[in-house]
Write a structure and sequence with these properties.
four-stranded antiparallel beta sheet; alpha/beta; Alpha-Beta Plaits; nine-stranded mixed beta sheet; about 25% strand; globular; 2 domains; single chain; binds S-adenosylmethionine
Length: about 270
């Protein structure tokens, strides 16, 4: 099933009315997303068609799957927050956090891969995001740092984004890939909970629907910290397709033509 093109309006540089006018002028059809004013679903145009528009070139919009817009919304970032995005490139969620706080939060972005860090810097500059970008292994960040809020959008097997029609799917997965992925996710979550201030909020997400990478990681790491899963109410996210999750209150998004398979959990560190 082909996946719809979806986008987020970058409110640091534009607004939904302006973007809709530009799409109308380019004869590109779109529809609203019930739970997010700044998101649009495009019909009859490809990602390349969108990339050819000035609103894309000037960072007024960002191509982003609807599932991946959930973590920044659930982070509930405020202007006064000191925030870490631990695995940030290419930066869709970082830019969304910046937009949601009108560039007022103190935002630190960490990315291990050098080339992806350059891409992250480019994307942040294009979208007018104010942030401090670090090229570093987040598992090795100094424990001297501390943050009010942390987004850990962890590297994963990508099981939620693979389509059955994808070529090479059979070679994409192995026990080794999964166990390496889980090991890294546990190390990153352990560091995230170490750096999170007491009373702070952490969002853990992956684009995988495999329980080992999601609830399995939470169940293994959370008992070592004074931290609890805060139940996510899906009432405000009308129409998001769900799969069962092993831990109540966490969300596993079911992949379909509009949504990538995805997992998200909100964690609070006790004061
Ligand atoms: N949050 C990003 C976004 O919305 O655009 C997507 C993040 S992607 C799922 C995971 C990223 O983590 C990759 O860019 C990968 O290079 C990076 N990464 C992997 N291991 C890391 C580590 N130890 N420290 C920091 N970043 C890491």
């Amino acid at each position: 099933m082909p996946r719809h093109v979806t986008m987020r309006v970058n409110t640091l540089k534009s607004d939904i009315s302006h973007v809709k006018r530009c799409l109308d002028a380019a004869s590109i059809s779109y529809s609203d997303v019930p739970w997010y004013r700044d998101a649009l679903v495009i019909s009859g145009a490809s990602e390349d068609d969108i990339r050819a528009l000035d609103i894309y070139t000037y960072g007024k919009i960002y191509l982003q799957n609807l599932s991946s817009m959930l973590p920044p919304l659930l982070l509930e970032a405020k202007a006064e927050d000191c925030i870490l995005d631990m695995a940030a490139a290419p930066g869709g969620k970082s830019a969304q956090i910046a937009a949601l706080t009108d560039n007022q939060a103190q935002l630190t972005l960490c990315e291990k891969d050098k080339i992806r860090t350059e891409r992250l810097k480019f994307n942040m500059a294009r979208q007018g995001v104010r942030a401090y970008v670090m090229n570093a292994d987040a598992t090795k960040l100094s424990d001297m740092f501390s943050f009010d809020k942390i987004l850990l959008d962890a590297p994963c097997s990508g099981s939620g984004t693979i389509r059955i029609t994808d070529k090479g799917i059979s070679g994409a997965f192995s026990d080794k890939l999964l166990s390496n992925s889980v090991k890294l996710q546990k190390a990153l979550l352990t560091k995230a909970l170490t750096l999170l201030k007491a009373g702070g909020r952490l969002v853990y997400s992956t684009c995988s629907v495999l329980p080992d990478e999601n609830c399995g990681v939470l169940s293994s790491v959370l008992p070592r910290f004074n931290a609890d899963v805060l139940p996510i109410s899906m009432d405000r996210f009308e129409g998001v397709p769900l799969l069962p999750s092993e831990i109540d209150g966490t969300v596993t998004v079911c992949p379909n033509g509009l949504y990538e398979g995805f997992f998200v959990a909100v964690i609070a560190k006790r004061p």
